[in-house]
Each structure stands twice: as structure tokens, then as C-alpha cells.
């Protein structure tokens, strides 16, 4: 399985986040999955990639061309695919992925998460999604999503599409076992195929 991991590029974050990222990466490789990621050498992107390689796994970076400067890209990618824009990068990561795992990150990571979660809710893909909740980082998001469901801005079924946990083993179990069926209750009907 190709697991797309989103996460921070900052090296200023606490060591506990980087350690959790490396542990996650190692567990991905231990289970014989491949990593799809944004190609960065720093922050959680780099930590997860190093963890995957330490476990003997394959690392595939998807990178916009303007990132090709010294010190930005993880130097040991098994394969690097280049795009012209950030939007193309997100689209290619989605296409290559069989599942998505969001580690702690900033606004770029949240942008990636909310887009992929929205597309899952709309049944534009049926790939499982999980969040690594290191140090309770994603508890505010969990509370917000629950509040949105309580206030009927989100269906309760949508909450079943996402697993939030600090435990990489629990998250990877979810990704491997999560059914890919559509959900009910969105209140929307779609054509069988996209139309222009």
C-alpha cells in the first residue's frame, strides 16, 4: 500500500514530534508499505522518510520544481516526481496514494487534510484517512469536528471516515482495515461520472 503522509516541514518543533514521526515511518516500512510524501528533508516530512528508510522501505517524494534548492529535499528518495505547482503536487499525491496519514503540521498540512477529507466525504475517493495525534496536537481538530457534527454542519457518518490517535500501530491498523464504501447522509446526489 502507498501511504501518503502529510506533515510539518519545520525543524523548530519539539523533539517528541520528530521522534513520533520516525517511529511512524519505521512502522510503515515494517508493514511493507511505501511512503508518498512532499519530499522535504526537514521537520516531520524528513523524520517520517528517515524512519521508512531505517526500516528498509521505499520513499517517493512529490515535489514542485521551485523546491529544488540546497537543503530542502530529502536526499535519499528512491524516486522523486516533479510538478509545476503546489496544486499539481497535491493532485499527484492523491493519485499515487492508497491511504492518507496526517502528522502534526501547520496551515499547509491542514490545507492538505481538509481537502482530502472533503473529497472523501463527497465520495470522490474512497481511501482511508488517519491523523497522528502526538502530544494531543489534533485534539482541537477532533473537538471542532465533533462540534460541527453536533451542530449539523457535518454528518455523524463523516466522523467515521477518520481515525485520530497517538498510536502509529492503531492508525496503520485502521488504514489497512478501513472499508472503502461510501457513506450515507451527505444529502447530496452525484452523477456516475464527472461532467464538464
Adjacency order of strands in the biggest sheet: 4-3-2-1-5-6-7
Structural class: alpha/beta
Number of helices: 7
Show unreliable segments.
Answer: none
Average per-residue pLDDT, rounded, comes to 92
Per-chain topology:
Layout: E1 2-6, H1 15-30, E2 34-37, H2 43-54, E3 59-64, E4 79-83, H3 86-96, E5 99-102, H4 107-121, E6 129-132, H5 139-150, H6 156-159, E7 162-165, H7 168-177
Could you walk me through the main structural features you see in this protein, from its secondary elements to its overall organization?
41% of the residues lie in helices and 16% in strands. The radius of gyration is 16 Å and the shape is globular. α1 links the parallel β1 and β2. α1 runs parallel beside α2. The chain has 196 residues and is α/β, with parallel strands linked by helices. The model has no long low-confidence stretch (mean pLDDT 92). The protein has a 7-stranded parallel β-sheet, sandwiched between helices. The protein has 7 helices and 7 strands.
Keywords:
16% strand, alpha/beta, single chain, seven-stranded parallel beta sheet, globular, 196 residues
Compact summary:
With 196 residues, the chain is of the alpha/beta class.
